[in-house]
Amino acid sequence: MSETKVVVAIEEERLELSVRTGSIGPDVVDIGPLYKQLKMFTYDPGFTSTASCESKITYIDGDEGVLLHRGFPIEQLAEHGDFLEVCYLLLYGELPTKAQKADFDYRVTHHTMVHEQMSRFFTGFRRDAHPMAVMCGCVGALSAFYHDSTDITDPHQRMVASLRMIAKMPTIAAMAYKYHIGQPFVYPKNDLDYASNFLRMCFAVPCEEYVVNPVLARAMDRIFILHADHEQNASTSTVRLAGSSGANPFACIAAGIACLWGPAHGGANEAALNMLAEIGTADRIPEYIAKAKDKNDPFRLMGFGHRVYKNYDPRAKIMQKTTHEVLAELGQKDDPLLEVAMELERIALTDEYFIEKKLYPNIDFYSGITLSAMGFPTEMFTVLFALARTVGWIAQWNEMIEDAEQRIGRPRQLYVGAPLRDYVPVSKR
Ligand code: SDX
């Protein structure tokens, strides 16, 4: 079959560009030769029509509301798998055998402790520092402890660093929470599963035994699965770009955490819960819907809309189901915030503005209600998102390094500033 071409014609100049086809999803036009041949750049701020790489990890069909990890639907992974199984899948490309899973669980479990001197980093922060600020600092500092796994050209060292990141993020996240509330750090326990270990490190106190609630542990594990990876989103692209310069994995993950913090991205779960609390009661919803539609008002419905999903975010449906399970388990089925959220969703999904702009609830719309019910303060919500997304960032970072086509990311621009001009002495200005 002849290769598909796209022709760019400018007056007499004609340039044929190759079209590349993936296994599923849109084709791409290879614009690599564009500048060399036509001395022009493409222009796509926000990268709405730009593929930055080839990837085998995650596929999203935004129109259909489909999310696959290595080909497996998120609904099936959330229903039948556990988070470390999804971590293995994202890192290695296949679901683990029973023996592979046991070995992976053992290796992750036995890397959950952090260097004891890490605990001193926290004391430099104010107690009321936002935990995401603490995470940026402490995760970036990990590269000061693990020089034996920062040679990114060594596949073994990359995998050691990958496992260390996945294993230590819950410990660091729990330490950030404990420091924030003025309670002592709790060490991980190797006889607990990943989610149970994290809940215990967050909520146990020295004065009494902490008994993990299996319903909450399962919900936590599923929430981690839902946040694990999501194609080339802003924070993943940040990690890839940082990694393209050869920066060590810990520094790259710290860059991803910083990007995720933004309210348009991972910070939306905290912003969505604060918005629901501000709305307060269902009768005030129309006032906020009007604000969201007002072009002169910067207010947006947090937890709504998505760059890729122009249908219901499949993760939001699973998240909503998990929310009901957690609230029922905790005897909070009548949580007023849930009532506001469900009424807000009902109204928005029937409103012409949201229908026309294809704005649906995303992963962040219900997660905050669930995490709040589980006992986490809103400022910890994005920390949990970062904890779960670490495996996605790491898997994408590894894929980028192994990709022969990848080189340092260095976009160009359309310059609209002053043309060449001479310096004017201050006496003549
Ligand atoms: C995440 O990319 C990923 O995959 C991210 C993520 C992941 O897992 O990594 O899925 C996680 O970040 C989910 C998104 C969380 N953010 C929020 O919930 C914040 C609220 N949402 C918006 O800020 C917005 O929808 C974005 C940022 C999510 C998407 O922005 P886009 O793609 O740039 O879309 P846009 O801002 O151009 O909006 C298109 C139109 C605009 O109106 P017009 O200028 O065309 O008239 O829709 C409007 C927007 O004003 N719009 C909204 C809206 N979101 C978009 N109007 C009201 N409320 C909203 N939430």
TrEMBL record:
<keyword id="KW-0816">Tricarboxylic acid cycle</keyword>
<dbReference type="Pfam" id="PF00285">
    <property type="entry name" value="Citrate_synt"/>
</dbReference>
<dbReference type="InterPro" id="IPR036969">
    <property type="entry name" value="Citrate_synthase_sf"/>
</dbReference>
<dbReference type="GO" id="GO:0005737">
    <property type="term" value="C:cytoplasm"/>
</dbReference>
<dbReference type="InterPro" id="IPR002020">
    <property type="entry name" value="Citrate_synthase"/>
</dbReference>
<keyword id="KW-0808">Transferase</keyword>
<dbReference type="InterPro" id="IPR016142">
    <property type="entry name" value="Citrate_synth-like_lrg_a-sub"/>
</dbReference>
<dbReference type="InterPro" id="IPR010953">
    <property type="entry name" value="Citrate_synthase_typ-I"/>
</dbReference>
<dbReference type="InterPro" id="IPR024176">
    <property type="entry name" value="Citrate_synthase_bac-typ"/>
</dbReference>
<feature type="active site">
    <location>
        <position position="364"/>
    </location>
</feature>
<feature type="active site">
    <location>
        <position position="306"/>
    </location>
</feature>
<dbReference type="GO" id="GO:0006099">
    <property type="term" value="P:tricarboxylic acid cycle"/>
</dbReference>
<protein>
    <recommendedName>
        <fullName>Citrate synthase</fullName>
    </recommendedName>
</protein>
<keyword id="KW-0012">Acyltransferase</keyword>
<dbReference type="InterPro" id="IPR019810">
    <property type="entry name" value="Citrate_synthase_AS"/>
</dbReference>
<comment type="pathway">
    <text>Carbohydrate metabolism; tricarboxylic acid cycle; isocitrate from oxaloacetate: step 1/2.</text>
</comment>
<dbReference type="GO" id="GO:0036440">
    <property type="term" value="F:citrate synthase activity"/>
</dbReference>
<comment type="similarity">
    <text>Belongs to the citrate synthase family.</text>
</comment>
<keyword id="KW-0614">Plasmid</keyword>
<dbReference type="InterPro" id="IPR016143">
    <property type="entry name" value="Citrate_synth-like_sm_a-sub"/>
</dbReference>
